[in-house]
Amino acid sequence: MNAPTLELPVRSATVRLTDLRKRYRVGDDWAEALKGVSLTAAAGEMVALTGPSGSGKSTLLNLAGLIDTPDAGTREIAGHAVDGLDDAALTNLRREQVGFIFQGFNLVPVMNVADNVEYPLLLLGRPPAERRRKVAEMLESTGLAGFAGRLPDALSGGQRQRVAIARALVKSPSLVIADEPTANLDSHTAQQIVDLLRELSHERGAAVVVATHDERMSAHCDRVLRLADGELVKGERQ
Amino acid sequence: MKWILFAWKNVMRNKRRSLTAMLITAMGTAAVLIGGGFALFTYESLEEMTARDSGHVVLAAARGFDNDEDVPLQHGLIGAAALAAHYGTQQGVRAVAPRIQFSGLISNGDKSAVFVGSGVDPAVDFRLRGPQLNFVAGEAPGPSEAVPEVAIGDELATLMKAKVGGSLTLLATTTEGNLNAVDVVVRGIVKTGVPDIDRRLVMTDIRAVQRLLLTDKVGSLAIYLKDTAQTEAIAAQVKAANPELAVRTWRDLAVFYQAVRALYNRIFGILGLIMVVIVAFAMSNTLGMAVVERTREIGTLRAIGTQPGEVVRNFVLEGVAIGTAGAAIGMLAAGLTTLGLIFAGLEMPPPPGRSTGYPLLLSFSPALYLGATLVVVALAAAAAWFVSRRAAHKPITEALAHV
Ligand SMILES: Nc1ncnc2c1ncn2[C@@H]1O[C@H](COP(=O)(O)OP(=O)(O)OP(=O)(O)O)[C@@H](O)[C@H]1O
Ligand SMILES: [Mg+2]
Predict the structure, then answer these.
(1) Going by fewer Cβ within 10 Å, which terminus of chain A is more open, N or C?
(2) What is the rounded CA–CA span in Å between residue B152 and residue B166?
(3) How far is the CA of A199 from the centre of ligand 2 (A)?
(4) For residue B57, is it within any domain?
(5) Cβ density class B50-74: b for 16+ within 10 Å, e for less
(6) Strand A46-50 relative to strand A207-211: parallel, antiparallel, unpaired?
């Protein structure tokens, strides 16, 4: 909360999550996955979420990325109050403001690299010339310029995750959600991916919230938040 | 365009499965088109046949079609010659044929049988009926002489042991209710292909019949048109000009045509329904599998901002692509079959109530092809919508967790 160097006058906090709670039904019982978590991230800031397995990282990311609903708490993204929006409005908000990077890459296998990257712009109804320009730009900055026509199957894991980064950032979202984006990569490639994500999101002013187990990776983030048992642990660099 | 391309790439994702669905759709389409083409050809042939038989528009006296006369020709048409002359010169009319239907006993001296007679104008009628009157022996009777000439059905000829040139006697009730007889000579033996008719048919000059029945009325006037499509228009015209007369079209009189049409409509309607079910099933199956396999992908697309409706639309496009391809293949197959049959010269077995077959040909109807394609494509779209809408609305986190 008190990171004055990152407070921008206009878009002070791109993402503002307040007191989020989420519990799941487990048999006859309830499992508390999040017990009142608050988090803000500013434009261009990269926040790491760490914590043991089952501590609620994915749950928090799903809520932040608007693909799941909290039981309590409020959310705000790029100045839009999220609470009370219906599914269509949430979808539109994600379309405009949120990029996703998945552990398993989740590219569309029948689309080549350029088409995968173009897809979000297609959803936004951008004109063809603009789409072409932005895709080319994005492929250039992710080092995929020579791979535009390749299908995802013909790419290495690192390359696939670059495509995913390009797809997430091509629309210049306010927020990028990355759940264990490097878990399927070797450590050298993982390093490159983190650096690329950090560099591009800084450049484009997107807040990134990334869940990771990897200490080396969190070391490259602007802030590290630690979750344990559904709660934030106050700690270093917050 | 991008979306259509995307849909097509998805169709090609599992080539064998999509191809199977396409082929099933193609077979269904072809079956409907071939069945429908056959039914249409049958209808057209029967129309032609019936119209040749009865004439396109038939005129009679007010109660001439009621079949409730006390004596023959009680409701006969008076002044037929003037009417015939009038309509014979009208535009679009090929010929006008006066007719008398009568019945009685036919005898060879040793035994007799019931006959159903038709008095016709020999100069017009035999020409009009064309290939339908198939003379197995002899030829068409000429105008009435002292001893009138007749053509009789082949089975009746067998029954009467009659040969061409042989003599027979017709016995009938006159318009006054008395019995009258006339000796006739057999000039031709015909086979219509309908055993019921061939067993009883006697055709002769209408003037001989008028003499036999002691009348100058005729039963009806058959107006033959140059174009069958003109039937209703001319019938209306004739009716308007002769309000005191009864006017029927061949369609009203064509009991056999109506019966066959009703039967075939039902048979091919059921065939069509079965095809609809099969195609719908194949489509739902193929697309349903695709939807399940792509659950995680649907979750991904939803997460990055695709609306459920857009997910469904993509699957609908896939269905439409498969359906269109299948329908196209089916149309091609049906079209080639239609062409092939023209050259193959196959013969159909006799239809119910007939003893002769007819050529196996298919009619080509653009409306039928268009209709079948629309139905198939609509079915495919509906199936796609049906199987994808639930997955499109599945909670995104669940869809993403799908393996
Ligand atoms: N769909 C669900 N149904 C029931 N319980 C769930 C569900 N999703 C998560 N949980 C529970 O919520 C808690 C938090 O899970 P979450 O997936 O957020 O943890 P995580 O920190 O992402 O773990 P990991 O590092 O293994 O990915 C866990 O106890 C988990 O069992
Ligand atoms: Mg997780």
Answers:
(1) N
(2) 11
(3) 24
(4) no
(5) bbbbbbbbbbbbeebbeeeeeebbb
(6) parallel
Chain B residues near residue A167 by CB distance under 8 angstroms: 304
User: pLDDT at position A12, please?
Assistant: 58
The closest residue, in CA terms, to atom 19 on ligand 1 is A54
B156 close to B108: Cβ distance less than 8 angstroms:
no
Residue B16 domain-assigned?
Answer: yes
Which residues constitute the domain of residue B285?
Answer: 2-49+257-401
Atom of ligand 1 minimally distant from the CA of B401: 1
* Domain end point (choices B244, B273, B288): B244
Q: What is the pLDDT of residues A13-49, one digit of tens each?
A: 789 999 999 999 988 999 999 999 999 999 999 999 9
The pTM for the full model equals 0.82
Give the residue numbers spanning the domain of A185.
13-237
Are the C-beta atoms of B152 and B141 separated by less than 8 Å?
Answer: no
Q: How many domains does chain B have?
A: 2
CB A74 within 8 A of CB A64: no
> How many domains, in total, are found in chain A?
1
Mean pLDDT of chain A: 90
Q: Which residue from B10, B296, B307 is facing A88, i.e. has the nearest CB? A: B307
| Pair B229, B263 in one domain | no
Is B261 found in the same domain as B240?
no
Residue B255 backbone dihedrals phi, psi, to 5 degrees: -65, -45
Which residues make Cβ contacts (< 8 Å) with residue A16, sequence separation at least 6? Answer: A39, A40, A74, A75, A76, A77
Q: What is the distance between the alpha carbons of residues B275 and B288, in angstroms, rounded to a whole number?
A: 19
Using the beta-carbon criterion (under 8 Å), do B308 and A87 form an inter-chain contact?
yes
Tell which residue, A116, A222, A98, has the closest CA to residue A159: A116
Cα(A101) to centroid(ligand 2), Å: 13
Mean pLDDT of A118-141: 95
pLDDT attached to residue B69: 82
Query: Which of B6, B12, B303 minimises the CB distance to A67?
Result: B303
pLDDT tens digits, one per residue of B194-210:
889 999 999 999 999 99
Same domain, B92 and B208: yes
Chain B nearest-CA distance from A49, in A, is: 19
In terms of Cα–Cα distance, which of B377, B274, B383 is closest to B328? B377
Residue A65 at interface with chain B, using a CB cutoff of 8 Å:
yes
How far apart are the C-alpha atoms of B42 and A27, rounded to whole Å? 68
As for the ipTM of the complex, it is 0.92
- Look at residue B90 and give its three-state secondary structure: coil
Please say which residue of B209, B244, B279 terminates a domain.
B244
Q: What digits encode the pLDDT tens for the residues B45-87?
A: 888 888 888 889 999 988 888 878 888 888 888 888 888 899 9
Average pLDDT along chain B: 91
What's the CATH code of the domain at A187? Answer: 3.40.50.300
